[in-house]
Amino acid sequence: MGKLSGKVALVTGASKGIGAAIAEDLAANGASVVVNYASSKAGADAVVEKITKAGGKAIAVGANVANPEEIGKLIDETVKAYGKIDVLVNNAGIFDPAPLEAITPEHFHNHFNLNVLGLLLTTQAAVPHFPAEGGSIVNISSVVATLAPAALSVYNATKGAVDTITLTLSKELGPKKIRVNSVSPGMVVTEGAISKGFIGSPFEAKAVEETPLGRVGQPDDIAAATTFFATDDARWVTGQIVKVSGGAR
Ligand code: NAP
């Protein structure tokens, strides 16, 4: 019996990177997992196959959570497959560097529509499907909310917003016994971090220098912390913003 046996977990943006590692770890702990993706069906199918081959339960559901019209379908398919939601991990997010002079309304809206509005509307749609005994919502934030590296104003601001939403919703959803916490990774080696040029760059070297544990993170470093918040081990923990960053702050 895993710590999440009988529980249903929905992970947004789980076709790769941090979300994929979280989906795999929640499933390894016994949860039935919905692996959401936006465009990488093959990636999501591979995550589902890995989980099922290891004896776990998972399905892949495509939905762009930056599009309010697609969120209903994601929640409907989750409930149709597994009947309820005990754990929601709001992980889907984008991070494009842009110094002040490069910021456009499009850059702003792309980030806020997914990282903030998508998180809020997914949570809004999921909450009615939590059971009476409550559950756990984990928002994947970032140390950038407070570390505030240069040339990332809009992305940094989305994660500041995520942390404020975590605090607010912990109060609002406490009466429903739904705990809400932020897990804030430092720099993690993911497909996204590689494709945006962070990994292997001076930005990575600076991040390692500012990290007491002296390395960047791996997706499973973040998954372990997320699973803690998802389980009953964190039953008295809500409204927390926990940096999982090797000490970078
Ligand atoms: P990643 O490798 O780029 O993966 C992003 C995931 O999100 C993919 O599964 C992608 O699915 C999905 N996604 C993108 N847009 C989506 C949308 N509109 N709707 C639904 N899913 C969508 O990213 P990552 O590095 O793992 O980052 C995951 C989270 O961790 C983000 O919130 C990010 O801000 C946060 N974070 C990352 C780092 C880091 O250094 N990597 C550090 C701190 C925080 P498709 O492939 O199907 O598009």
Task: Give an overview in words.
By secondary structure, this protein is an alpha/beta fold. It has a single domain, classed as Rossmann fold. It contains 9 helices and 7 strands; from the N terminus they run βαβαβαβαβααβαααβ. It has helices at residues 17-28, 41-53, 68-82, 105-126, 144-147, 153-173, 191-195, 202-209, 219-230, and strands spanning 8-11, 32-37, 57-62, 87-90, 135-140, 178-185, 241-244. It has a 7-stranded parallel beta sheet with strand order 3-2-1-4-5-6-7, with helices on both faces. Helix 1 packs across helix 9 (219-230). The longest helix is centred in the middle third of the chain and has 22 residues, at 105-126. The structure holds NADP nicotinamide-adenine-dinucleotide phosphate. Residues 12-19, 36-40, 43, 64-66, 91-95, 114, 140, 142, 185, 187-188, 190-193 line the site of NADP nicotinamide-adenine-dinucleotide phosphate. InterPro entries: KR_dom, NAD(P)-bd_dom_sf, Sc_DH/Rdtase_CS, SDR_fam. Keywords: Oxidoreductase. This is 3-oxoacyl-[acyl-carrier protein] reductase.
Radius of gyration: 17 Å
**Residue ranges: pLDDT <50 for 5 or more in a row?**
none
Element-by-element helix/strand order: EHEHEHEHEHHEHHHE
The CATH topology is given as: Rossmann fold
Oligomer: single chain
Q: What is the overall pLDDT average?
A: 98
CATH 2nd-level architecture: 3-Layer(aba) Sandwich
What count of structural domains?
Answer: 1
> Level of helix content?
40-55%
For the biggest β-sheet, the strand order reads 3-2-1-4-5-6-7
Q: Look at the helices and sheets and give the structural class.
A: alpha/beta
Straight-line distance between termini: 36 Å
Strand percentage, roughly?
Answer: 15-25%
| Count of DSSP H/I helices | 9
CATH first level: Alpha Beta
Total number of beta strands? 7
Task: Indicate the overall shape.
Answer: globular
Sheet of most strands: 7 strands, parallel
**Distinct small-molecule ligands in the complex:** NADP nicotinamide-adenine-dinucleotide phosphate
CATH superfamily: NAD(P)-binding Rossmann-like Domain
InterPro entries: KR_dom (IPR057326), NAD(P)-bd_dom_sf (IPR036291), Sc_DH/Rdtase_CS (IPR020904), SDR_fam (IPR002347)
Family: Belongs to the short-chain dehydrogenases/reductases (SDR) family.
Keywords: Oxidoreductase
Pfam family, one: adh_short_C2
